[in-house]
Design brief:
This protein is an alpha+beta fold and about 350 residues long. The chain is built from ten helices and 14 strands. The strands form four sheets. The protein has a seven-stranded mixed β-sheet, sandwiched between helices. The chain has a three-stranded antiparallel β-sheet with strand order 11-10-12, with no helix packed on it.
Length: about 350
């Protein structure tokens, strides 16, 4: 597999995005976000998404150089519309607006609708944590219904991420960020491109039967049908996924899953974010002390194997340290797809 330096990769991705018509600033924001996902070990949300973005742009779904539209501003409640622009841009803009309000009012609820693929949701929780804020994010995904409800045999909604971020003084923040399916669909794309099979219990084929073939949620069969991912945690994960659909989709006004007559390559996200300033719920010293003592207690647990106990956010930090030094491995199929996408705009990635 090609192993590429993160700065080289970021420049190449920015060239593609800018060639599509984005401003230099927008291109750099999108490229940085995607490469950051790779650096943190989440290749499913990294540069491999670029071919899909190109397809969404070519079909006219993804709109370039958009800013969020403020539909309602109640101080501690912001209702925003991404206007079908890049989610990486709209998401950062929305979170930074929420940070300013939460710092002033103690909390802020940010409703964001109609964003094209927000990418890794933990990125927004990390931004909030950098400003000392606790955050909760509920997201729905409108692309293709590739996740089955518990007890069902076909896809009924998207991977619908859930995320919580908590700042830790002088430590990596606690960033809990996961798809409510057993695994993200993008990870199935990566496995498919690498020719790998998936362990049992993750996937259903187009007839609702268990399968280990990741292609069932990557490419439709001859009848145009897709298979489905299983929800994590049986009925509990399925219930959380539905909650993300109702809150991230219905409450934000971004929309929920229903049969669609036209196939689209776009990926639409609605996100409801709750930002809380811990200084307004207790003293900063009390919060920092309580959080630190509990994390210390958790990590003092005897390890079940040779790896020490970690909290959410630490594996990403370690992966980033390693990939900053060693580079980012991109499988041949994914790199070939990126090169093909670039060639549509006469971009040479050599």
């Amino acid at each position: 597999m090609p192993i590429l330096a993160h700065d080289f990769l970021e420049k190449q991705i920015a060239k593609i995005v800018q060639a599509m018509g984005s401003s230099e600033t927008e291109a750099k924001t999108v490229a940085h976000n995607l490469v950051l996902a790779n650096l943190k070990g989440h290749d499913s949300h990294g540069v491999g998404m670029i071919p899909r973005y190109v397809e969404a742009f070519v079909e006219g779904s993804l709109k370039l150089n958009q800013s969020v539209k403020v539909n309602s501003d109640l101080g501690s409640l912001l209702v925003l519309d991404a206007q079908h622009g890049y989610g990486q841009v709209a998401g950062e803009e929305a979170i930074r607006m929420g940070i300013e309000r939460a710092s002033k009012h103690g909390s802020c609820i940010v409703s964001l609708a109609n964003a094209h693929h927000l990418g890794r949701i933990g990125h927004f929780a990390e931004i909030a944590a950098e400003h000392g804020l606790v955050s909760i994010h509920m997201v729905n995904v409108l692309s293709s219904p590739v996740v089955a409800v518990w007890g069902g045999a076909d896809g009924r909604h998207g991977t619908n991420p859930f995320c919580v971020g908590v700042p830790l003084k002088n430590q990596t923040p606690f960033i809990l960020d996961f798809a409510t399916s057993r695994v993200a669909q993008g990870k199935m794309r990566v496995a498919h491109n690498q020719g790998k099979k998936i362990p049992e219990g993750f996937l259903l084929d187009q007839q609702g039967r268990p399968t280990q073939d990741p292609s069932v949620v990557v490419k439709p069969n001859a009848d145009g049908k897709m298979g489905a991912l299983m929800p994590f945690g049986e009925h509990k994960g399925s219930g959380l996924a539905i909650a993300c659909e109702l809150i991230g989709g219905a409450l934000t006004g971004s929309g929920t899953w229903k049969p669609r007559p036209k196939k689209s390559r776009a990926i639409w996200n609605g996100m409801l974010s709750i930002l809380i300033n811990p200084q307004q719920t207790s003293t900063q010293e009390q919060f920092d002390g309580e959080v630190a003592s509990f994390i210390q207690w958790v990590k003092a647990s005897p390890a079940a194997d040779e790896d020490p106990v970690q909290i959410a956010g630490e594996p990403e930090r370690e992966k980033m340290r390693m990939r900053m030094q060693q580079g980012i491995a991109i499988d041949e199929q994914t790199w070939g797809d990126i090169v093909s996408a670039a060639q549509q705009f006469k971009i040479d990635l050599s």
